[in-house]
Amino acid sequence: MSISITKDSANDEVCITIQGRFDFSMNSDFRKILSDPDCLGDKYTIDMGAVEDLDSSALGMLLLLREKAGGDNANINITRCRPDIIEMLKMANFQTMFNIA
Amino acid sequence: MKILIAEDSKLSRSVLSSILEKYDYTVIEAENGEEAIEKYIEFDPDIVLMDLMMPVMNGYTATKEIKRISGDKFIPVIVITSIVETSSLTESVECGADDYLNKPYNAEAIHAKIVALSRIKKLHDSLREHERRLEALNEEAEADLLVAEHIYDFVLDKGHDVLSSVRKYMRPVTNFNGDILFSAHTPSGGLNIMLGDFTGHGLTAAIGAIPASDIFHQMTVKGFSIGDIAVELNKRLKKILPLNMFCAASLIEIDQERTTMSAWNGSMPDIIVTDSNGNLINRIASSHTALGIVSDDKFDRKIDISSLKGDELIYMCSDGLLDARNKDSEKFGMDNYLGLFERNKSSHVNLNNIVDELFSFAEDGEINDDISIIEVNLDKNVDTWHADNKDLIERKRITTGWSASISFDAGSLRETNPVPLLLDMVNGINVIHGHKERLYTVMSEFFTNSLDHGLLRLESSLKSSPEGFMEYFSQREKRLSELTDASIMISIEQKKIDDEWVIVIDVKDTGSGFDVKKSSATLEDNSGLSGRGVELVKRICRSVEYNEKGNEVRAIYSFAKK
Which pLDDT value is given to residue B519? Predict the structure, then answer.
């Protein structure tokens, strides 16, 4: 279970990699990232290739990130999701708010 | 710092005292164990130096007693021995002593011991303080939770009508549930049901449940449609809930005759409809964001309306069911859930089977989310639904007739979809709540038939496969761009027929007509990709009539039928 973050300063692009169960146990780490000005960028990629499961608090964290990244103008790609994770994001209709692949 | 010395030899005592006073400690002296206890109680020292062999009461007993009195407060006791005698040391440690000092006294050694022990004491004290604070917070949180639970139960009880059509299984993870179930009859005798799942289990659910319950019940009683209710719930929850909290919800509305079901599914598992034999006949998957996330202007109220025979069973569940895990950590999942309805073809699937299946699956596994499963039995023998007179009163408020007729030529058909405009117009004039989605379904069905089949001559049979579906739309686009000399006329009139106010909808196109019988597949095979068709409209309206040629249709929509 972990979150790591890398930033490409040249393109102002932030990549957040999440591993394991994306649930409430990541809440404080995720909030720490959100409140760190160094972790802000123009464009975000969330690599969910190693996410095994997510719950509604994970959806809540994604919403917080979206707001931080500019709300309706946010540019957030959620990448490398497993098919069942895509299913869950689609059930929540998140494809209307994030670019999911 | 105060130090208590228990020592029967006067000389020894004064030597020790003078050493300690040199280091600025306050010294309290006792001549024996009994006096040491009295002085301990009286002066509350920080550290005790205890001789073992004393008259009246020895050091072992006094140490034991002081440790008993001090309870969970840490008072270091240092025993003073003249010779290193292992047995007396062991005994004194068993009585609670923390360290020992050898005679003769060495000032440096005494001071070092006191400093080290007072450091441990400090650590112990701060730990104890934290523990105490945590305990107090815990108690406070528990008390708050009890209040929230009480409020929550009160809201849910108030909201829960006793309806024999609706059976529920609700299993909270913590002592109160993040899932909510509301059900109530509409003024016209229909039934509205909402199953909601708040993020988290505690306070969010309690905060959100109160306005959600009020909105659901008040709007249902006034006859608003579930589309209206969803809009209002979203608006309110968006306002009161923190950004990362929301309420996934399914809302369904069944009309009094049980001929149609309207459904809005926002982030909940599929709503499942089975026939009376338990065969799966329809699924309404989530197509919306949960309540409380998007702003009012972005909210999608689109309702899925489907036909019913009137003896179906409807199942709704929260995602806790799908997320339950077995001992191999596999999820119950949608496939297992749907499988229940396919496997049990011979025996009638019901709420109890589903719960049994869940528990046999999750045995030795884990269930860490609230689980709710709802079964709505539409069989009229189970429960009868009646309109109340509020609906009649509401309908009597219509006192004026009006009519409008609009025609769209090929150019405007390419540019706009007039149905939403017409709907706004009707809604602007009428004040009866709860008919928006139904009128929309009627008008858009007729309009689509006229345009796609009447004017563009598209075959709806194309839509039976996914590839054909794509083909259908590419042909549609092509033919629409080539369309000339064509028009669709829509007339809407509100008038009184047989002492009842109705809306008469006429749609006429300049095409060569279409075969209504061929187009309107029967209800049974109407669950595919093709539109729900005229058959659904017939169930919504009092009457639907096509002319011989098939290019003119008249529907009479009765406000009373809902």
Answer: 53
Assign domain B160-377 to its CATH superfamily: PPM-type phosphatase domain (3.60.40.10)
Q: How many domains does chain A have?
A: 1
pLDDT in tens, B426-440: 777 765 677 878 888
pLDDT tens for each residue of B332-389 = 988 889 888 876 566 678 898 899 989 889 888 888 788 899 999 999 888 888 777 6
pLDDT for the residue B83: 64
Q: Residue A27: which domain range?
A: 2-100
CATH of the domain at A82: 3.30.750.24
Residue B562 to residues B15, B187, B189, B442, B463, Cα–Cα distance (Å): 101, 9, 8, 13, 30
Residue ranges, comma separated, of all CATH 3.40.50.2300 domains in chain B are 2-127
> Rounded to a whole number, what is the distance in Å from the CA of A72 to chain B's nearest CA?
10
For domain B2-127, say whether CATH 3.40.980.10 is its number. no
Of B287, B319, B334, the CB nearest to A93: B287
Query: CB–CB of A92 and B286 under 8 A?
Result: yes
pLDDT digits (tens, 9 = 90+) for B177-232: 678 888 888 878 889 999 999 987 667 777 788 889 889 988 888 888 899 999 99
Residue in A63, A96, A97 closest to B244 by CB: A63
Residues 6+ apart with CB under 8 A from B41: B69
Mutation choice for A interface testing from B199, B244, B299, B366 by most A CBs within 10 A: B244
Q: HEC states along B339-387? A: HHHHHCCCCCCCHHHHHHHHHHHHCCCECCCCEEEEEEECCCCCCCCCC
DSSP chain A: -EEEEEEETTTTEEEEEEEEEESGGGHHHHHHHHH-GGG--SEEEEEEEEEEEE-HHHHHHHHHHHHHTTGGG--EEEES--HHHHHHHHHTTGGGTSEE-
Q: How distant is the Cα of B229 from the closest Cα of chain A, in angstroms?
A: 19
Q: What is the pLDDT of residues B440-486, one digit of tens each?
A: 888 888 888 899 888 998 887 777 777 887 888 889 889 999 999 89
> What is the spatial distance between Cα B266 and Cα B51, in angstroms, rounded to a whole number?
76
Domain covering B397-561, topology: Heat Shock Protein 90 (3.30.565)
Span B238-260, pLDDT tens digits: 999 888 889 999 999 998 889 89
